Input
Amino acid sequence: MRAIQIARHGGPEVLSVREVPQPTPGAGEVLIRTVASSLNPVDWKTRAWEVGPELPATLGWDLAGVVTAATHPGYRPGDQVIAMSAQIATGRGTWAEQVALPARLLAAAPTTLPLADAAALPLAGVSALQALNRAAITGGDHVLITGAAGAVGGIAVQLARHIGATVDALVSRPEHLYAARELGAEHVWHAPVDLPRRTYTAVLDTAGIDAGPALAPGGRYVSVADHPLPDIPGAAKSYVQEDQDHLAQLVALVDRGELRLRIAHRYRFDEVRSAHDRFEAGGVLGKILLTF
Output
C-alpha cells in the first residue's frame, strides 16, 4: 500500500508517496481503508520542524474511511468511521491507504454529508470543543474568538453560539469578515487595535494573537496557539487530546444541522506537495482535503 511520508524535515519537497507494508490490526484495533484526510497546521510543522516520531514517518491526524477488518466487537467491515490520531505522540499517521487504529479513537461518521468531507471534522472540531470546555463557556458568556475564519476558530464560533454564548470575532483579513459573521459572530474585526477593551468574559485565541486587553477583569483566557500566553492571571493553554466521546458529540451536531464544515480545496493524496503549498500560502476559508 502507499503512504505519504517524510524521511527528513524541510519544505513540501520532502513529502513522498512511498510503498509501505500494510498494517495488521492488533488487539482492540480496527483496520480502515482511508477515503480522505485533511491538512492541519501540525502537519506542516511536523514536516518542517525537527519534531515528531522517528523518521521515516507517515504524517496526518485526521481520518475518514471504511472499516475493512476489526478485532473489536464494536466494528465490522463496511462501517464508515472518522478518527483523530495524535501522530506526533504515537507515530500512527493517517496519510496512508490503510490505517490501523485503536477502536477507542473511532466514531461513526456523519450520515448527512459525504464521507470524504467528514475528514475536515476530527482535529479541528475536537480542538475547538476542548478549548471551549477549558474556558468553561456557558450561555451567559460574551466570548471573543480570534482566528474565527480558520478551521478551529470557525468551529469554535459555531459551538459557542450553540451553547448560547454571545460571540464576537477577530479575523486576519478584511475579506474574511463576512465568513465569520456567516458562522454566527455578531461583531467582527480584522485589526486587533480595534477590539473593545476589558469587554469579554472569555477569550479563545486560535491564531496566536495577544487579545488580553479585550478581556474583562476576572475573565478566562484560553489559547490553542503555539505562541506564548499573554501575562494575564489564569491564562491557560488547551492541548488537544484524543477523545471518542467528543468526536461522537461533534458528529451528532453535524447530523442535526447545527455544525457546518467548510471545505476549501480537494487534492488527491499524490498531490500532497501542491496541497501544502496552497495551505501555507494562507487565506484559505475551510479545510484542505487529501482524498485517497
Observations:
- DSSP finds seven helices and 16 strands in the chain.
- The first strand starts at residue 2 and ends at 6.
